[in-house]
Amino acid sequence: MIYADVINHPEQFDFTIPTLGRCALDSPVKGRDFVDDDEQIVFASQVKNILKLQQSGKPFPAFQKAGPRARIFHDPAWSHAAILTCGGLCPGLNNVIKGVVNVLWHDYGVKTIFGAKFGYQGLVARYGHSPLHLTPELVDEIHEEGGTILASSRGNQKPEEMVDTLERMNINLLFCIGGDGTLRGARDIAEEAARRNRAISVIGIPKTIDNDLSFIEKSFGFETSVHASFEIISSAHNEAEGAYNGIGIVKLMGRDSGFIAASATLANSVVDFCLVPEVEFTMAGERGLLAALERKLEKFHHAVIVAAEGAGQNLFNSAEVKKDASGNILKNDIGLFLKDEINAWAKKQGIEVAVKYLDPSYHIRSVAAISPDAIFCYLLAENAVHAAMAGKTNMVIGNWNNYFTHVPISLATRQRRKIDLDGAMWKGVLSATRQEDWFAGNPDRK
Amino acid sequence: MIYADVINHPEQFDFTIPTLGRCALDSPVKGRDFVDDDEQIVFASQVKNILKLQQSGKPFPAFQKAGPRARIFHDPAWSHAAILTCGGLCPGLNNVIKGVVNVLWHDYGVKTIFGAKFGYQGLVARYGHSPLHLTPELVDEIHEEGGTILASSRGNQKPEEMVDTLERMNINLLFCIGGDGTLRGARDIAEEAARRNRAISVIGIPKTIDNDLSFIEKSFGFETSVHASFEIISSAHNEAEGAYNGIGIVKLMGRDSGFIAASATLANSVVDFCLVPEVEFTMAGERGLLAALERKLEKFHHAVIVAAEGAGQNLFNSAEVKKDASGNILKNDIGLFLKDEINAWAKKQGIEVAVKYLDPSYHIRSVAAISPDAIFCYLLAENAVHAAMAGKTNMVIGNWNNYFTHVPISLATRQRRKIDLDGAMWKGVLSATRQEDWFAGNPDRK
Amino acid sequence: MIYADVINHPEQFDFTIPTLGRCALDSPVKGRDFVDDDEQIVFASQVKNILKLQQSGKPFPAFQKAGPRARIFHDPAWSHAAILTCGGLCPGLNNVIKGVVNVLWHDYGVKTIFGAKFGYQGLVARYGHSPLHLTPELVDEIHEEGGTILASSRGNQKPEEMVDTLERMNINLLFCIGGDGTLRGARDIAEEAARRNRAISVIGIPKTIDNDLSFIEKSFGFETSVHASFEIISSAHNEAEGAYNGIGIVKLMGRDSGFIAASATLANSVVDFCLVPEVEFTMAGERGLLAALERKLEKFHHAVIVAAEGAGQNLFNSAEVKKDASGNILKNDIGLFLKDEINAWAKKQGIEVAVKYLDPSYHIRSVAAISPDAIFCYLLAENAVHAAMAGKTNMVIGNWNNYFTHVPISLATRQRRKIDLDGAMWKGVLSATRQEDWFAGNPDRK
Amino acid sequence: MIYADVINHPEQFDFTIPTLGRCALDSPVKGRDFVDDDEQIVFASQVKNILKLQQSGKPFPAFQKAGPRARIFHDPAWSHAAILTCGGLCPGLNNVIKGVVNVLWHDYGVKTIFGAKFGYQGLVARYGHSPLHLTPELVDEIHEEGGTILASSRGNQKPEEMVDTLERMNINLLFCIGGDGTLRGARDIAEEAARRNRAISVIGIPKTIDNDLSFIEKSFGFETSVHASFEIISSAHNEAEGAYNGIGIVKLMGRDSGFIAASATLANSVVDFCLVPEVEFTMAGERGLLAALERKLEKFHHAVIVAAEGAGQNLFNSAEVKKDASGNILKNDIGLFLKDEINAWAKKQGIEVAVKYLDPSYHIRSVAAISPDAIFCYLLAENAVHAAMAGKTNMVIGNWNNYFTHVPISLATRQRRKIDLDGAMWKGVLSATRQEDWFAGNPDRK
After folding, report:
1. Which of the following is catalytic: D107, D188, D210, D212?
2. Taking 80 as the threshold, does the pLDDT of residue A409 lie above it?
3. Where does CATH 3.40.50.450 sit in chain D?
4. Most buried one in A263, B210, D47, D433, CB count within 10 A?
5. Is A437 in the active site?
6. Which entry of A180, A210, A212, A333 is annotated as an active-site residue?
């Protein structure tokens, strides 16, 4: 676990936030408690860890606290801002865009705000994507819609070309909303700008629907995607109960971590088996999924399985031999794999089953943000603008201990977060599903 | 068109409702306008057709009007009822069950009501499915949930075995909720009971999420499934707009008719191409989908395609030669087919596209009924009970000209309804999508 | 009942649709079955009524069928259209606007389409409301929102002033979306235009969230408002069950008719008492609401009451004496009245109750249209445009026997429709609530 | 601010958790990281505060960390548990009940679980409310519904009577879900049990829809209520935009703090004025609400006002003189007050306005929990059971720095939390609404 590493080796983790220079201007932000750069949020929440760190004599790991600074670096009157969205859709993108525009415009008086189209492509002249000119009027109702009004693209572009564009357009405030690839791209832009000695604040707003960034407790859009999964699980449950030995299978997002699958299972606790990348399982054998399923069906005659995209990837090598006609796409699709394997097994065993497979795919990332996410997005945006105006760069806005924080990009992208299998959430999943009992062949549930 | 046939050859259509015998008992239903058996709802709504029929001297096609009869056949005190649900899930099943139970219990005083489990299997002893004993308390809140509390199964069972069960359980009122296969099963039961001289009313409540039964203007659950499709289309639209040349593809139910796809397109009119079984199309060629799509992308850089399951089935024969490794399931899946073909074409043409495929599959049939369907289900159930108590049999409850009607099973299952391509709905789809213009290569839309 | 009058005195009802003149131009609408003016939809659906009418020798009541005409009156190239929305909000207003714009633009090529702001005020120069110029792009996503992009106002304006504006702006196609006041205003405009010999088609699209127009089976927005009421009733039910002798009261729209209250009760059948203007009731006495409520509480310890706005208005005279300090608004508010009366009664009787009053008020009319309404709105709009282009005027688009029809304004506004207390819907409400049993003091329900 | 007091006077705050005795039994919980009693979550998150506290030599404020203990106090085989819900409804009550039952049953093997009906009344014999016997089957789907299956009541009962009942029923684990009144009741029970030397663990699960408990960062149900408010605000916005000088007023819960109003404003940022108890305002005068509203209407011709229940209470004293006929209820109703005052003012000024007042009242607390709340509830329940089994008592489960914590009841009920007017959320509200600018008469927004 990376967090244990911070406690044990804090010297390996740099929490310092780069700045473009001295803040020489008074902030136009009114009536706020300003935050000083030396206000810090403690990384460790447990008293024993705090004591251990203090006794070690090593640097004490803590995040710079986000918020408005009394003095700022960029002159609002001369500032040009740009916003872009990269990678896959995520609920809340429009909320963040709206927030950035509103705070720049109203709190700081920055009125030249470009919306670069199609992610980093919008910063490369040869693509020919004209930027939008963003105003509070234009963004007034965009929070009611999913998607992103700026559109998106995948992949990074050459930092040199992008900084050329920033220079040509006189942009000194750049907000990049995206996942860790995007954030690395933002870092490259920040470094290229530094190389050219251009005072451009590059601020990332971390986006990962899978909620798997390190050093950031919650990423926007995640709760909405879990909520959108709730009703898909209800449908699978209705299908499972609607047939003799009905089996509803739901595949949810989560390539490397199963946060969505686990959270959705806990939210709509009618799930019998929750399969995540963090926990390997087998199909065959006494402790395999098929045996567990058989026990379940014998007692209840229906079952609901929720699988994260990345679950059971270990099964594909062994399956490859007998499934070679299935083609590449099918081979890694755990949902279709489960459906086919269960059907084949049931046929062989002479068990009547009715397998119903639901793959909401893009739906759960394309919906509008639910309220908790909407609020979170606005506050992320607000703090991103404060950081930018104060001349911070090469950083993202994070959230830690319910404070908004400044996190160096290098820290945020260092390693993906995984479900803590000994933590409360996963234990909640196990207590809600009882799946370990069914795998173990010992179903105590009447 | 089958409806034109009725006008021209009414003698070929028998609207007569079989009855078990003379209604010798006063109805316990209070304070209602009772309906006489000779009240009829005219089949033809257009004056010219009515005149034509009257002048022909042939039998005048009209439905017996549904509703409570002043005198009834079955003695409530001695009646035993059974309800079952067959085939795929459909929004509103629980609403119908609740309605049948409430009206039997409260309006007629029938208090022995069995819920047979797993469709017709529940009427076959060797399956061993115990029936539920249904009461108003038990069904009080089931209308809030999708699915069916009775569960379902596919396929019919031997009428002899089923009537054995009905005899053994003394059931004289049988309500079968299901599609045309189920209704044919109900007809077989009614005929077997007649053969044995058993006075069993067999009443069908027609269920087809595709809304494609003849002689029945609306089937329950259809509007809910359209409504559930609305937000999937919004997601596809967000995905399409969220990427350069983004293409959102949504597959919706509709094996033989495209009512759901067409209605959902009209409801959420952001769709660019609506593909239904009733209209053939080609992929290649100047008037093919790919050319139309290319024109659309050139102008707008995004497109949304909605395809009914049964659309484009003509394309698979020609495609078979080059797609033989894909297996049977893939071969007929128009959604995956479109996704693969469009990706292959774009790659070949060097066009950057981002294809996002959404298949809500079982989700749109597993949700709870929206209010218009909920009301419709209750009224269907109410009229089904009235018909049963009056000794009608071998019939279904239909809806025509906004009246509830009695429809002989033979009529209801005679032929599937298709979209009228010259009718208002399809023309609405064409005006909302402008797809014919894009197919024709003549996009007048700026 | 007005409908019985039509059967008995058809000569008193004029179904004739006025036209501006001869249709001299070929329709640009492509590939449609055109409808002839003499195609008619029969008013009577019951065979016995049809025969009676035919034997009477009186004029046969029937609606002109809506749809595109092969030949049209207005030259699209020279046509200027205007659309306006009047009166209270209703779900689907934006859908109708979108439909009118799309069909005018795409099907007929009319590209000058004004959106008059704030209802009829938008046709009166001195208000100074600039019209919107409507295009398919502008209206592309408005169907996703409730409300109306054109805004609205109450009350009519002088026809002379409005026709002045129409003349000055060269408008020959006017679409008025509103209730019966609005439609009477449209009639006045049509008559004033006729007086001036101006060929202006004035087409009404009838809007009444209460669904109480005569000669029109369904009005748009009604189903959505019922659906929005569903969850409010669920909340009232949760509140009622959540306390000892919990009583949830929901007030719903319906000044003169109780269609929303009755339909919502049938849709979410957890209601115990559904109070509508069509059925008088008393508070006190053996058969009064309080006694019925007491019986219900004794057995179940909770109850849900749904009241239409106009229910129980007979009660206010007697109550006036002891409630004179309450002011005018309170006096007629059946919701607050019930809450106060029940609380006072319970206090007097020494019964512990927990009354929770929910008044969703404007909420249920401000939401976006659900799919069935959305589709209905688009088709209403389509047929309104066809009627206008064919030179019809002084009429509204109706719906009868599932056909869209032309209805003279004088007919549509003749009398408000009420719930048929002997019809299926109200009987469904009685069977779902059992309220008559509780009023009667004879609760057979365990 | 109470939190500042903790930093400055930590000695005045006792974080100690009472226990019933030594934990002598091994926990049956499988495969978990057990938590030791001396694991603590730091109260202060800011490094400077931590240092200050450490240097003060005073007791270091920190919460005991929640979670399963390796050794437990109560013997599961002999344990009897009871759960009850008190006070007003709140989304998530059923989720907490389900969680407590599942974890007791499956993780610890406690199979005697009573659901006391109607809050503390259920612990007083003379009310005669029979308890439910709760099992995992019974609670399996209750999380899908709002309300509480145990029903509720307001007010406390005599601790002596309640402990009599607990003794008679041999209950050693008591879970009280409720607000601060309820928690004080729980404290009284714990103390009475201690007086009698009965080893009863009394664990509170704090419920406050207003999210205003101290020492607990988030209370369940709050996010759902904000989310349910979102669409009411959209309706108010549609109403406001739908009329000339349309004014939509929404009253939301929040007697003493405006968290719901502020959060809902930030979530659906179409609000123009957000009025909360924490900020006084006047109606009249250059900086009053009416003047601000007038400026807003002059520019935009519509406005949306969201008011927390407790906002503007200072206005009622002055209003009392001229409003004495309105009665007690009306006098303190800020929503009706605003509606009346604005209408009176507009009439006097000759300004045409259309005021629409929406009071969702009980609706937003009666809906089912959205997913983030559902998950939170399950984890609260899980940790409550762990605490109870380990013999903790007189405490509630809290949440701090994203850890679940043990909080003494005395601490949790010490003082209500208010919005921090210098914090990020309120500043977000100000930047989203610009209301201070409009109050100040200086609307810079074009």
Report:
1. D210
2. yes
3. 2-220+369-412
4. A263
5. no
6. A210
Stretches where chain D sits below pLDDT 50 are 319-331, 445-446
**Annotated catalytic residue, options C107, C180, C188, C210:** C210
Specify the pLDDT at position B309: 94
Q: Kindly list the residues from chain A whose CB atom is less than 8 angstroms away from the CB atom of residue D264.
A: 371
| Cβ–Cβ < 8 Å for B77, B158 | no
- Are the beta carbons of B401 and C436 separated by less than 8 Å? no
**Tens of pLDDT along B78-109?**
999 999 999 999 999 999 999 999 999 999 99
Name every chain A residue with its beta carbon within 8 A of the beta carbon of D383.
424
Contacts of B326 in chain A (CB under 8 A): 327
Both tokens assigned to A67: 């918020």
Distance separating alpha carbons of residues D170 and D252, to the nearest angstrom:
42
Subunit contact C42:B42, Cβ cutoff 8 A:
yes
Q: Which residue has the tokens 């610890």?
A: D108
User: Which part of chain C is CATH 3.40.50.460?
Assistant: 223-365+423-440
Residue-level pLDDT at A442: 62
Q: DSSP letter at C130?
A: P
Cβ of D118 within 8 Å of Cβ of C244? The answer is yes
DSSP for C202-244, please give it: EEEEE--TT--BTT-S--TTHHHHHHHHHHHHHHHHHHHHTBT
Q: Say whether B47 and C67 touch across the interface (CB within 8 A).
A: no
**Banded model confidence at residue B444, pLDDT cuts 50, 70, 90:** low
Write out residues in chain C with pLDDT < 70, as ranges.
Answer: 317-331, 442-446
- CB nearest B267 (choices: C371, C383, C444): C371
Closest chain B residue to the Cα of A365, Cα to Cα: B235
- Burial of B319-334, coded b for 16+ CB within 10 Å and e otherwise, reads beeeeeebeeebeebb
SS3 A10: helix
Check CB contact of B140 with chain C, cutoff 8 Å.
yes
Rounded mean pLDDT, A199-218: 92
Nearest CA in chain B to A233: B363
For all residues of chain B together, what is the average pLDDT?
92
B chain contacts of residue C263, beta-carbon cutoff 8 Å = 371, 375
Is C242 in contact with D121 (Cβ distance < 8 A)?
A: no
Class for the domain spanning C223-365+423-440: alpha beta
3-state SS, one letter per residue, for B44-74: CCEHHHHHHHHHHCCCCCEEEECCCCCEECC
Q: Is D181 on the interface with A (CB under 8 A)?
A: no
> With 60 as the cut, is the pLDDT of residue A393 above it?
yes
CATH superfamily of A225-365: Phosphofructokinase domain (3.40.50.460)
Encoded tokens for C362? 């404007």
**Cα(A257)–Cα(C133) distance, integer angstroms:** 51
Which helix or strand (DSSP H or E) is residue D296 part of? helix D289-300
Per-residue model confidence as pLDDT tens digits over C11-25: 999 999 999 999 999
Distance CA B377, CA B143 (A): 10
- Domain at A2-220+369-412, CATH class: alpha beta
- Can you name the CATH fold of D223-365? Rossmann fold (3.40.50)
Judge whether C45 is closer than 8 Å to chain D, CB to CB: no
Q: ipTM of the predicted structure?
A: 0.93
B 353-382: CB under 8 A from C: 370-372, 374-375, 378-379, 382
Residue B323 has pLDDT above 80, yes or no: no
Confidence at residue B196, expressed as pLDDT on a 0 to 100 scale: 97
Q: Does C103 touch chain B (CB under 8 A)?
A: yes
Alpha helix (H) residue ranges in B64-113: 93-102
pTM of the model: 0.94
Residue from D362, D212, D363, D343 nearest D277 by CA:
D212
Whether residue A76 has pLDDT greater than 70: yes
pLDDT of residue C446: 39
